[in-house]
Design a protein that fits this description.
single chain, 9 strands
């Protein structure tokens, strides 16, 4: 992530930020989440294959030469084979069974850290399944999707939101300068990212509220329940749009009920100054908006904290290195199949202006 954000300023103008954000978070997915310590060129190779494969997830179902789906299908075997080779190199293979050797605690990267790949061996053991290189590779590919697709899209929305809000970037840079001066080498620690940057946190949450990337949560009712007069039976499947809850609360902020079919001003990106206000989150918790992008309760997204760390790290590093402006004349965001500008790829120009102590 450090290399990827630095590269933005080396390039200057990035004409397709939609693809670039995935590269930024993919580095974290490979190193921090998968637990592999790899050379930059290997990370770049994995990220390139991952981008091609994941582009096929939301492509039109047309499997013809040159289409995204066709390219994804063609790249998938090489992508999985690379993960399998990396797993063999890291863990070794039992010649008798063809399974990967179960790692010891000392093999964690870094030693003693939480390592989800290490955890896969426990999962396979509990299921009585063989931890072959191919099966572990398939799970690593799935984890990479979960760690990069929605997180990368959220990061894109965050860059757009800051760009569209006059004065916010300068305020965020002031906060970063203060954190760096106060905490020094610990200014990007777990505690600093989650607890010492209130404006960055507020700006991110407001971006997730106004420009959400998750629109559907699936749940099964565990008991009979009645909600608003509607009866839901035990075992019934439910499709829950998180944005609906946020929309209902947004109506109350406007001071009146919007006409049927109309968005409340505090949720309407066409009225950006009314919609996007990080200050909504700089109040006591009881007065803050509802935010359901990660779900709620015991079934909420298991990667929520990791995703927040990725997003805050990427943005903190970017703010410390300089400033940026969007080049697109039209900045209306569409949400399906994934968040992007309706006018095409997001183009951003980055200008080096490092804060004191930034590298």
């Amino acid at each position: 992530m450090d290399r990827a954000t630095s590269a933005l300023f080396e390039r200057g103008t990035v004409h397709n930020m939609d693809a670039e954000v995935r590269k930024i978070v993919m580095e974290a997915a490979i190193v921090a989440i998968a637990g592999f310590s790899l050379a930059p060129e290997v990370i770049a190779k994995i990220a390139g294959l991952a981008t091609t494969v994941q582009n096929g997830l939301f492509a039109a179902p047309i499997d013809l030469p040159g289409t995204k789906l066709n390219k994804a299908r063609a790249a998938r075997p090489a992508y999985l084979a690379l993960w399998a080779d990396l797993a063999r190199a890291r863990f070794g293979v039992d010649p008798a069974t063809g399974c990967l050797l179960s790692p010891s605690a000392e093999s964690l990267v870094p030693a003693g850290a939480l390592d989800p790949t290490h955890g896969l061996f426990h999962e396979f053991a509990e299921m009585g399944d063989a931890a072959t290189p191919e099966k572990i590779a398939d799970r690593l590919a799935q984890n990479a999707v979960g760690a990069s697709e929605t997180t990368g899209n959220t990061l894109l929305g965050f860059y757009i939101a800051i760009s569209r809000t006059p004065g916010l970037m300068a305020r965020l840079r002031v906060e970063q300068a203060e954190v760096m001066a106060r905490l020094g080498a610990e200014s990007l620690s777990y505690d600093a990212l989650l607890n010492k940057m209130p404006l960055l946190e507020a700006a991110l949450k407001e971006s997730q509220r106004v420009l959400p990337v998750s629109h559907t949560i699936f749940r099964r009712a565990l008991v009979d329940v009645e909600v608003g007069g509607f009866k839901i039976k035990k075992g019934q499947m439910m499709l829950i749009p998180p944005g609906t809850f946020q929309l209902l609360q947004a109506h109350t902020w406007d001071g009146k009920t919007a006409p049927p079919g109309a968005l409340p001003r505090s949720y309407d990106q066409r009225q950006w100054e009314e919609a996007y206000k990080p200050e909504r989150w700089l109040v006591p918790a009881a007065e803050q908006p509802n935010l359901h992008v990660f779900g709620y309760g015991p079934r909420k997204c298991v990667g929520m904290t990791v995703a927040n760390l990725e997003l805050r790290s990427a943005m903190a590093l970017t703010l410390r290195r300089g400033t940026w402006v969007m080049n697109n004349a039209a900045v209306h965001v569409k949400f399906m199949p994934m968040l992007s500008l309706a006018s095409g790829p997001t183009s951003i120009t980055f200008t080096k202006d490092p804060l004191p102590g930034a590298v």
